[in-house]
Amino acid sequence: MRTSFFLTLLAATALIFTGCATKSGGNGMGDDVNGAAYDGATIDPNDPSLNGYDPNDPNVGAFDNGKFEDTRTRVTDSGLEALLFSFDSYMLPPEELAKAEAAAQYLFNNPSHVMIIEGHCDERGSNEYNLSLSEQRAIGVRDYMVQLGIAENRIQTRAFGEDKPVVAGADESAYRLNRRAEFVPYK
């Protein structure tokens, strides 16, 4: 009897402490870390990576021989197009997959080359949220290319959040082009 009472009490205590915790400023119902609402959330605002990501960490995206840009020469005439994303999403849009497939084909055709996939966001959302989202975009593209047969050690990722817009502007036509993953090959 005492054992079952103790176990019931322990279970109740565990439920209380693991219940619906949210970050301060958020309501747990689709707010980003600053409390601003976003539509169709595809990223968990309570994801610990939102607070743990450091874009200045020299190990972010680095593999066995360091950062590609430190050890190789950038290829500027690859002809690869940026892959565009939907608002607030890191899911690869089916209509954009051909761009990732072209980047994979580039690496198949150039076996000594490597690639950095740079993730970007539009200006909406907090800086921390956008860094996390852009990181997830770059990683998603990398993972897709690995599924296509590219060795993982030939692809690195970088996350820039909203810091490097390709187009200035505060309307959907600019936002659309800034939500992207860019393919940057090196030889």
The helix content is 25-40%
Q: Roughly how many Å apart are the termini?
A: 71 Å
Taking Cα atoms only, what radius of gyration do you get, to the nearest Å?
20 Å
| CATH H level, superfamily name | OmpA-like domain
CATH architecture: 2-Layer Sandwich
The pLDDT mean sits at 77
List segments where confidence is low: pLDDT < 50 over at least 5 consecutive residues: 1-55, 57-64
Largest sheet properties:
4 strands, mixed
Structural class: alpha+beta
The beta-strand count equals 4
Q: Can you tell me the CATH topology?
A: 60s Ribosomal Protein L30, Chain: A
Which term fits the overall shape?
A: globular
Strand fraction = 5-15%
Count of domains? 1
General description of the model:
The chain is globular and about 40 Å long. It contains 6 helices and 4 strands. β2, α5 and β3 form a beta-alpha-beta unit. Helix content is 35%, strand content 11%. α4 crosses α5. It has a single domain, classed as OmpA-like domain (60s Ribosomal Protein L30, Chain: A, 2-Layer Sandwich), CATH 3.30.1330. By secondary structure, the chain is α+β, with helices and mostly antiparallel strands. It has a 4-stranded mixed beta sheet with strand order 1-4-2-3.
